[in-house]
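re: ur question from earlier - yeah i can do the single chain one, its not a big deal. heres the input i used so u can compare w yours
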Amino acid sequence: MHDNSPIKFTDFDYLTGDCHLQMLKAALPYAGMPWQRMLSILIKCQELKHTLALFDDADAASVGICSLDSSRSRSPLDMLEAIKPYGTPREQELIDTLSLLMQALQQPT
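and the output i got, formated as C-alpha cells:
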C-alpha cells in the first residue's frame, strides 16, 4: 500500500488537520476493523469540516488557500517545482525532463 517513504505534508494539510486528527490516525491500526472504518470516516469528515471553515472567513477566502507571494511568478515551471518533492523518484525524474523541455521551448531561437 505504501513504499515506507515518509509522506511530505503541504501547507494545505496543515491547515485542514490538527494534532488530534493525527492522534486518531496513529491509533487506527490498534482499533478493530469496524472501528477503523468508523474512525477513518470521522477523520475525513473533520478534515472536510476544517477545509470548509477555511472559506467561511471572507478575508481568508479572498486571499486563497496558501496563496503565493504576489511578487513571485506563477508559471507552469514554478508549479512543477512545487509538486516535485511529493512525487516518487520516477515522477521526479519525469518532472525534471518536462521542466527541461519547457525551458528549451521558451528559449528564443
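The longest helix spans residues 33-54. not sure if urs matches, ping me
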